[in-house]
Amino acid sequence: MKVAEQLAYLGRLHGMSVPAAAAAVATWTERLGVAGRRDDEVQKLSLGNQQRVQLAAALVHDPDILVLDEPFSGLDPLAVDIMSQVLREQRDRGVPVLFSSHQLDLVERLCDRVGVVHRGQMAACGPVEQLRAGGPTRLVVDAPAARDGWTAGLPDVAAVSCEAGRTVLELVPGGDDQAVLAAALATGPVHEFRRRRPSLTELFRHLVSAESAA
Q: pTM for the whole thing?
């Protein structure tokens, strides 16, 4: 089927009148950047345009709730921005939006609550900031004169990354960050020393590795 025909058909399936379905098709194809594809066959579209049409199909009948599977897959950055804005607008007008995604930077930006699923089980669930606050503490240390391995003898920490004197460490709960600072100062000047909450991506890695180890 052609894009406009399919979207109108889906609208009619949800009880819309012919004029209302046509108006909704015009609105959403324009909004999602596929107005010029209304007369194209859906299967001939690029993956990104197919994703846009799928979102239009979900929105055309003005749903009470949105459940989406990987809605950002295959989208270019401009399309991601458009899709993100549409989902925010739906949320702001009171429509619950539930979606799955492996693009955790987008999840972190968009979602109020997140569930992390691993091996078919819910590994963590809650507001994004609450999950990040409960994750492992990271220390960011910029000690340009420090040699590789300068943290090797320190208790309660593990080096996550080290590049050009900038080291990211993971501190165990109750670990002494002042001991880390003293060790960093012993190497020379310290330009930066701060705690940082883990990103959602880092939290996911931590949860998955912990589950796998168990």
A: 0.70
